[in-house]
Design a protein that fits this description.
About 25% of the residues lie in helices and about 30% in strands. With about 210 residues, it is of the alpha+beta class. It is globular and about 55 Å long. About 5% of the residues have low confidence.
Length: about 210
């Protein structure tokens, strides 16, 4: 409750009273604030990153230690407890999904987080994933051509586990992309999220099964 009150007070000072009054409370710094409720244990994916978190600038004196300054630092992590709208998002409030023996996401290696992306070439992987197996794939990105280059095809992530395929139960048109959850490092996740927006195609090439 104190965190909620501090967040509300800081937001009012920074947003409602103008920069002149805000300066009287000290220097401002960016903080990550929860915009919509985040339930315990549910990993924060790219969509939640965009819809549920926002950055505000508030006086330093109101910011609890350990508060995140960038939403992307929460990617793939799960809240330890339910987080209410308006609360600051601190590093101590998050944990890796597999921590504490969480059975939901087996197959993650150290440093990997569950990240949902859209990719083609997932048909053969669906039966493996639904049978509880963990196929390994290479994630191949084909960039759009530009005035300076013809575009290129490259491996953005090699030998990563498939944790789930098409978890919503929807089916794309033949040959179209489908939602797939992969075990990725933070750097791989950020690169593939960018590729989804700007690349011509993101495809999965099977390597084997765990």
């Amino acid at each position: 409750m104190l965190a909620l009150a501090a967040a509300a007070m800081a937001a009012a000072i920074a947003d409602g009273y103008g920069s002149r009054v805000a300066r009287s409370y000290g220097a401002l710094r960016p903080v990550v604030v929860v915009r919509e409720a985040l339930p315990t244990g549910l990993p924060i994916g790219p969509k939640k990153l965009e819809s549920a978190l926002e950055v505000r600038r508030v006086p330093v004196r109101f910011v609890p230690p350990g508060t995140l300054t960038r939403p992307q630092d929460a990617l793939g992590l799960a809240p330890r407890t339910d987080l209410a709208p308006g609360s600051y998002l601190g590093a101590a409030a998050l944990r890796p999904p597999a921590a504490g023996g969480d059975p939901v996401l087996p197959g993650l290696r150290k440093g990997q987080r569950p990240v949902e992306i859209s990719a083609t070439g997932t048909g053969a992987l669906l039966s493996e994933a639904t049978r509880g197996r963990r196929p390994l794939v290479d994630v191949v990105v084909t960039s759009e051509p530009s005035a300076r280059s013809e575009g290129r095809t490259y491996v953005a992530a090699s030998g990563v586990p498939v944790l789930a395929v098409d978890p919503t139960g929807t089916r794309p048109a033949a040959g179209g992309p489908v939602a797939v959850t992969l075990g990725l490092t933070r750097q791989q996740a950020l690169e593939l999220i960018a590729a989804e927006n700007f690349a011509r195609q993101v495809a999965l090439l099977p390597r084997g099964v765990r």
